[in-house]
Amino acid sequence: MDLEKLLADRLTPAFAAVAGGPVAPAVRRSAHADYQSDAALALARRLGRPPREIAAEVLGRAVLGDLCAAAEVSGPGFINLTVADQALGAAVAGLVGDPRLGVPRVAEPETVLIDYSAPNVAKEMHVGHLRSTIIGDATARLLGWRGHRVIRANHLGDWGTPFGMLIEHLLDLGEADGAAELSVGDLDSFYRTARAKFDADEGFRARSRLRVVALQSGDERTVRLWRLLVGRSEGYFLGVYQALDVTLTERDFQGESRYQPMLGPVVEELDRLGLLRDSDGAACVFPPGSVGRDGDPLPLIVRKRDGGYGYPATDLAALRYRTGELGATRLLYVVGLPQRRHFEMVFAVAASAGWLPGAARAEHVGFGSVLGADGRMLRSRAGAPVKLADLLDEAVARATALARRKNPGLDAAEVAEVGRAVGIGAVKYADLATDRHRDYVFDWDRMLSLDGNTAPYLQYAYARIRSLFRRAGADGLPAAVEAVRVPLADPAERALVFALLGFAPVVVEVERTLEFHQLAGHLHRVAATFSAFYERCPVLRAEGAVREGRLMLCGLTARVLRQGLDLLGIRTPERM
Question: What is the C-alpha to C-alpha distance for residues 506 and 145, in angstroms, rounded to an integer?
Answer without folding.
Answer: 14
